[in-house]
Amino acid sequence: MTHSARPQRTRIKFCGFTRADDIARAVSLGADALGFVMWPASKRGITPDQLAALTESVPAFVTRVGLFVDQPAELIKACLPYLDVIQFHGDESAAFCTQFDRPWIKALRMRDGIDLHQAAAQYARAQALLLDAYRPGTPGGTGEVFDWSRIPADLAKPVILAGGLTPDNIAAAVVQVTPYAVDVSGGIESTPGSKDAEKMAMFVNQLALADAR
């Protein structure tokens, strides 16, 4: 599948959960995937114990995604009972990513000169490529938008679009990029790690309107 083959419905991943009430609201709104940041330097970072508690209430057919940034294999393995998919957000090699017996996503920051075709070949066993804005020293969650026209239409991997998405720009993003899925964290929050119910609902509604075009 190429990302130019528009899916019937753009999948939604809400990321950076720290509160059970926010998870319940996201599920009720129809989120396809919930992201949990396991990187301790993040303002949305949680521990494996918190991950275990937060994922208890996630129902079947909602995907639990764990986000890691160049972290030890032992930590990732400790989190596996509570995760369906792993998201690698650092400089992990393809060999590292394939060792955990879980589907995985490779996040790529859109730095100048990046070759997405080469990256798709390098991470051939990834289930998708997540494309995020680039800021030096910041592996994700920048709240910044990159130039969507830099995404080639013939990329050989499904695209998950991230980076500065909000209820105000999600419709334009979906129409221009036609991604397989979108990933949002700060754009649906009141403060880092605390989701805003109204923003989540607006995001879902605007995405649905774009899909209907």
TrEMBL record:
The enzyme's E.C. designation: 5.3.1.24
Cross-referenced Pfam families: PRAI (PF00697)
GO biological process: L-tryptophan biosynthetic process
The protein's enzyme class: isomerase
GO molecular function: phosphoribosylanthranilate isomerase activity
Domain N-(5'phosphoribosyl) anthranilate isomerase (PRAI) span(s) in chain numbering: 13-205
Reactions catalysed, as given in the entry: N-(5-phospho-beta-D-ribosyl)anthranilate = 1-(2-carboxyphenylamino)-1-deoxy-D-ribulose 5-phosphate
Domain of life where this protein originates: Bacteria
Pathway the protein contributes to: Amino-acid biosynthesis; L-tryptophan biosynthesis; L-tryptophan from chorismate: step 3/5
InterPro entries with a match to the protein in the record: Aldolase_TIM, PRAI_dom, RibuloseP-bd_barrel, TrpF_fam
Keywords assigned by UniProt, alphabetized: Amino-acid biosynthesis, Aromatic amino acid biosynthesis, Isomerase, Tryptophan biosynthesis
CDD domains: PRAI
Family: Belongs to the TrpF family.
Official protein name in the record: N-(5'-phosphoribosyl)anthranilate isomerase
Organism: Vreelandella songnenensis
Classification of source organism: Bacteria, Pseudomonadati, Pseudomonadota, Gammaproteobacteria, Oceanospirillales
